[in-house]
Amino acid sequence: MFRIGNEIFLQAATEAKRRVLHAAKVVGVTDEQYQIWMEEPPIDIETDLELLVYYHHKRDFLKVPATVVGDVQTEPETVFTIDVTGAPVSADQRECYRASTVVAGYEIQFGKHDDCKIMDVSATGFAVTTTQLYVVANTVPASLEHEGVVYSGKVCVQSIRELGKGQIRYGVSCLDEKPSGTNLLAGIQKFSLHVQREQARRLAGVS
Fold it and tell me: Measured between alpha carbons, how far is 134 from 139 in angstroms, rounded to an integer?
């Protein structure tokens, strides 16, 4: 994914709602983990810190979730290792078609609550409302029941919008790299197709 010398940009989960990007550079690659260098980092880099890593690939600007692993070197320069925890998605716009589910009233288990309303869904993620508090780059467990099968996995918070009355809308992407068995990405893809077919039937006047 990254090569030595690549410039990347980091956003920490601790930075809450604003998309603040901090420049960094890849200085080492070992077993799918990446050693990162930052000059006078404005954020506290520590083990288990969740990040979103932004980078350019050809003509695209992408982002991918990652976690700081191992020891963090702070002197004479800040050097640390990250482990990429999910698949990259577009940082410029939604990566694929999203189908609205507001009217249908679908729910999903998200974090500690099992009755969170799904607002829209795509082949790689969804938007959900809840009163739980998360920040961008947080990893959250989720489970979706679809056609009698429970699909479970983890998602990465990509965007946040306060709706009022304690409700918060989160846009999230699945961390599974490929759909498989009952992992969440497999369920979300099947559910997304189901929703799109329902919408097509309604538009055609078919019950």
Answer: 9
